[in-house]
Design a protein that fits this description.
The protein has helices at residues 21-33, 74-85, 113-126; strands at 11-13, 44-52, 57-61, 91-100, 103-104, 131-135, 140-143. The protein starts with 10 loop residues before the first strand and ends in a 19-residue tail after the last strand. With 162 residues, it is α+β, with helices and mostly antiparallel strands. Strands 1, 2, 3, 4, 5, 6 and 7 form a seven-stranded mixed β-sheet that branches.
């Protein structure tokens, strides 16, 4: 059996001063979006901000429900709203920020598997990569395409032979 390795590129910044002004502003919008989070069960508040090619910014926050898993992650709230309101406009960037028990999370949080798959679908739909910025109180990480977070993706039945 042959061993194969998968490599991804992850960029890390020590603070917002190392980001472009556009990316820093988007991350701030994601942090602000945590305030509208409904997370009475986990106390883990997540905000997401999506920048579209037309300059619009759409924010979302996680929404929990007692009937788990009926809630929805911040990323999908923002992505689904963005693609329903602006169906023909590509998503350029998404920023994600989290607060736990009222404090900024010390480490960046990453999109869950379902959110990664939705991001990939959005990327495929527009034909252009989506930058993902994951911010925290102490560092910021970034990838320039969702493929770096989902290297072995379920991808449009590309190789399906019917």
């Amino acid at each position: 059996m042959e061993e194969k390795k998968i490599e991804i590129t992850l960029y890390e910044a020590g603070g917002v001063n190392e980001l472009t002004s556009e990316d820093a502003a988007l991350l701030e919008k994601a942090a602000e979006a945590t305030r509208s989070s409904y997370a009475p069960y986990s106390q883990f508040h997540v905000g997401a901000a999506v920048l579209l090619d037309n300059g619009e910014i759409i924010c979302g926050s996680n929404q929990e429900n007692a009937a788990y898993p009926s809630g929805l992650c911040a990323e999908r709230v923002a992505l689904f709203y963005a693609t329903s309101k602006f169906s023909q406009v590509a998503i350029r960037t998404i920023a994600i920020y989290a607060m736990a028990n009222g404090k900024a999370n010390p480490d960046p949080v990453y999109p869950c598997g379902a959110c990664r798959q939705v991001l990939l679908e959005c990327e495929n739909r527009s034909g252009q990569p989506i930058k993902v910025i994951m911010g925290s109180a102490q560092k910021i990480q970034m990838v320039h395409t969702i493929s770096d977070l989902l290297p072995l993706a379920f991808d449009k039945f590309k190789n399906l032979k019917i």
